[in-house]
Specification:
Carbamate kinase, two-stranded antiparallel ribbon, about 40% helix, alpha/beta, 9 helices, 9-stranded mixed beta sheet, about 20% strand
């Protein structure tokens, strides 16, 4: 990375589905290793990194609830899936020589530290990657909302939402060849037009606290580093620029 990183502390939001790779279920450890390498490229330059990972590759509570399972039970099961993903990422990061800590909003002391804000901040200050699992500990909230909440709590300067596309489009670019990419969007424009960036609770949290969101393609090597460096990669939502 040339020059000084634009952000000192970031919150990376990674979906569980991304960790599945081309599989319908489970963890593709080649993808996990690739994500870990991208994180290392950024962390090597002194950027503090907190990471919220979803659990959709293991279990999707809302989807199963539509088939009769109690929604709260399904959401708790999905939260446990996020812990599995966080532990996989922690192992991959440590194999690259990066100190990492998994912190869970649901206490399971044998495998993860309990999430305590001040302790998480201390880990970040010590140069450890903090993997935030277990959602926010409550059902009916998405991991997008968790990412926004943790970004505000930990005073992250940006939420970086890693996806399989290179930004936010007017339509699904895989289905509509005429879809065009937004370079920049205002929070209210996203809310009013119902543009799929993050759920409304997450977006409102970011808007109320002035936290920008960058949606970018995590699968392209070096993209995370470019975003942190300030390159116009992906779509920027909110303040900044």
């Amino acid at each position: 990375m040339d020059g000084k990183p634009r952000y000192r502390r970031i919150l990376l939001k990674l979906s569980g589905e991304a960790l599945a790779g081309d599989r319908d279920y489970g963890v593709d450890f080649q993808v996990v290793h690739r994500v870990a390498k991208e994180v290392k490229r950024v962390q090597d330059h002194g950027v503090e990194i907190a990471l919220v990972v979803g659990g959709g590759n293991i279990f999707r509570g809302q989807a199963v609830a539509e088939r009769g399972l109690d929604r709260a039970t399904g959401d708790y099961m999905g939260m446990l899936g996020t812990v599995i993903n966080a532990l996989a990422l922690q192992d991959a990061l440590e194999k690259l020589g990066l100190p990492a800590r998994t912190m869970s909003a649901i206490q399971m002391n044998q495998v993860a530290e309990p999430y305590i804000r001040r302790r998480a901040v201390r880990h970040l200050e010590k140069g450890r990657v903090v993997l935030l699992a277990g959602g926010n500990g409550n059902p009916y909230f998405t991991t997008d909302t968790t990412a926004a909440l943790r970004a505000v709590e930990l005073e992250a300067e940006v939420v970086m939402k890693a996806t399989k596309v290179d930004g936010v489009y007017t339509a699904d670019p895989f289905r509509d060849p005429t879809a065009t990419k937004f370079q920049r969007l205002d929070y209210m424009e996203v809310l009013n037009r119902g543009i799929d960036v993050m759920d409304n609770t997450a977006l409102t949290l970011c808007m109320d606290n002035g936290v920008p969101i960058v949606v970018f393609d995590m699968l392209k090597e070096g993209n995370m580093e470019r975003v942190v460096c300030g390159d116009p990669i992906g779509t920027l939502v909110g303040v900044g620029g």
